[in-house]
Amino acid sequence: MTKAKALRALMLTMGFSCVAIGLLHVLLGNSAIPGESSAGPTIDSLGRFFGAIFAGYGVAWLRAARQSPIRTTTVQWLSGILLLGALGRLLSLAVHGWPHWFQIALAAIELALPPLFLRLAHPAPAR
Fold first, then answer.
1. How many distinct structural domains can be found in the chain?
2. pLDDT, tens digit, 9 for 90 and up, residues 81-90
């Protein structure tokens, strides 16, 4: 598989995953957050709102994956947003301690994916 095909496949996977997760949060509210089903109406409202934004973020990945060629700057921006979210999780960990184990797994994925996206999106050196 070429670098471009791998990048496109990973971007499509990311996009569909974000749309599905975002819509799940919109539909289920607090029930979509492991260990937080009784967090109350304020967190429920916030979670549903951010779910819609996350679904929109997924749509941005899908649109970017359908461009030909895929724009490196778009991958950089979308990867940067993902990395910023991961850094937010680390800040929360530093301030409030360890969250539910699933949030730790998500943070690991969110820290690992941006460098992979950037490596795949980086143009090959001219020969």
1. 1
2. 999 999 999 9
Measured CA to CA, the distance from residue 121 to residue 71 in angstroms comes to: 8
d(CA 32, CA 22) in angstroms, rounded, equals 10
Q: Does residue 56 sit within a domain?
A: yes
Q: How does DSSP assign 9-59, residue by residue?
A: HHHHHHHHHHHHHHHHHHHHGGGGSTT-TTS-HHHHHHHHHHHHHHHHHHH
* Residue 27, C-beta contacts closer than 8 angstroms, at least 6 positions apart: none
Residue with tokens 């539910």: 100
Mark residue 2 as left, alpha or beta (left: phi above 0; alpha: psi -120 to 50; beta: remaining). beta
pTM for the whole structure: 0.92
* pLDDT for the residue numbered 126: 59
126 occurs within a structural domain: no
**Residue 127 placed within a domain:** no
**What is the domain range of residue 102?**
3-121
**E strand residue ranges, the chain:** none
